[in-house]
Amino acid sequence: MGVLGRLSRASQLLDRELRTFFAGHGLQPGEFDILATLRRAGTPHRLSAGALAESSMVTSGAITNRIDRLVAKGYVTRETDPENRRSVLITLTDAGRALVDAVAGAHLENERRLLGPLTAAQQDQLAGLLRRLLAGLGDV
């Protein structure tokens, strides 16, 4: 199996592992990404939908679908930006904050488990190689 085959297989296996992990918390990986991004934004834990799409590196349609699911679950609210009526602000609710705080530690532990076969130096080397590959593919 060549380099691209191994990259593809690793991506599939990691995706499955992450989906299983987050499903255990009633989330999809992209939903957790939004909750964590809002949490890191600091008080009042609010960002525009556009900023979330940019941070998540997904289309506006994909971010809208994720936000819709999180609104339905009560983890975020959506409101029109009073300073720019064309923009929508997404705010983390108390329930969303409690969930992301509860899941974050377990997520980091899961990442450590998944990367466990690699030493810290190998993880750093792999991260650098992947950054270079992504840049070469036009992903900045």
Give, in spatial order, the strands making up the sheet with the most strands.
1-3-2
Per the CATH scheme, the topology name is: Arc Repressor Mutant, subunit A
Main structural class:
alpha+beta
Helix and strand run: HHEHHEEHH
CATH superfamily: Winged helix-like DNA-binding domain superfamily/Winged helix DNA-binding domain
User: What is the end-to-end distance?
Assistant: 28 Å
- Helix percentage range: 55-70%
The CATH class, by name, is Mainly Alpha
Low-confidence stretches: none
- In percent, how much strand structure appears in the residues? 5-15%
Number of strands: 3
| Biggest β-sheet description | 3 strands, antiparallel
Number of domains: 1
Q: How would you sum up the global shape? A: globular
Domain HTH marR-type: 1-135
Pfam families: MarR
Organism: Georgenia thermotolerans
Protein name: MarR family transcriptional regulator
Description:
It is built from six helices and three strands; from the N terminus they run ααβααββαα. The chain has a single domain (3-136), classed as Arc Repressor Mutant, subunit A (Orthogonal Bundle), CATH 1.10.10. With 140 residues, it is of the alpha+beta class. The chain is 66% helix and 13% strand. Helix 2 crosses helix 5 (94-114).
Task: Give the topology, please.
Elements lengths: L2 H21 L5 H12 L5 E3 H8 L3 H14 L2 E6 L2 E9 L1 H21 L5 H17 L4
Antiparallel strand pairs: 1-3, 2-3
